[in-house]
Fold:
Amino acid sequence: MTPETSPTRIDAARDAAAILDRGELAVLRTETVYGVFARGDQQAAIDRVRALPRRAGAWGTLTWHAPTVEAVLEAHERASIEASPALRRAMRRVWPGPVTLRLHGEEIEALISACGLLPGVADAQGEDGHALSVRVPDDTWTSMALQRAAGPIVGASAEPIETGESAPQPGSCPKGLEKAGIALIHDEGPTRYGRHSTVLDIHPDGDWTVRAEGALTREQITERLATLIVFVCTGNTCRSPMAQAIATSLLERRGHAHRAIVVSAGVAAMNGARATPEAILASEAVGASLRDHRSQPASREVLEKADVVYAMTASHAEAARAQLPPAQRSKVHTLLSDEDVDDPIGGPQTLYDELARTFVGAIERRLEELGL
Structure:
């Protein structure tokens, strides 16, 4: 048992949920900022939030604060919406955590209904279509309160509430909230990030764009969400670098360069060797470039970080799997499902050119499989 899950804390979370279930408002800490929360299926509670005085502007769209990723996926199931593998993967990589996802899609209305939310509370129509704002906060106690509430909970930052006091420091609980008629103010000190959540627009196929940077930077989001693809051969100077360059080029043409990071490595490679001239020319003939390539070994670290590994031959695949724990070995495949890619080293330029054309078709199919 941790301090966060002690009986006293659990009772306090249950009390907070009961207050929200009565239609009253509560200010709770998240890992980003303090939020003012209400039941998203009770119009009177929503009206209380929107009646709160603000330092500037008006209350806009609130955000559904789900207790767990599973709660969001279960809402999809109740709405008979099949969440794509890419969307599921994105959710699990940013939640629980300081990221708000604006879910898009033609079935958003069904999802809103399945969540039990009133229309127009956590969703909005804009130039980019209909979107539902959802977040799974990473705060144990607040998550317990969300879990124990009898209906969906929506919230917004409490920092803009006008209390007659000086503006709060980012990530601190505003002073004077009791004057705003808020039933519960749970001040537990500064939040972890002291910044608002980063907001992403995300579509059913898992494609995403950063709408507003917050607790996580654009680079940190890309690092979390991008699929890491690793191609493996022997020396990392011909086959796997060609595959890496061609995959990178194909992703750019699809407009999906932000969705994947592609690298290559060799099971018997040294660090720093250039690609062979034939491999460079063959790659350029299909619109890819590997002039800046430098070889690297297929280390355990590289392989463990990968989301998927494509090996040129069955023996390369076995060598890669041998470095991985059993639970990760299923992510290693041969690039061509039914045959090895023979080493072209020492062969004529035409052999490399033919290999490059083979790679284009094979990698196109692999990217389709990955939803990229």
The chain has a mean pLDDT of 94. DSSP finds twelve helices and 14 strands in the chain. Residues 349-369 form the longest helix (21 residues). The first strand starts at residue 26 and ends at 29.
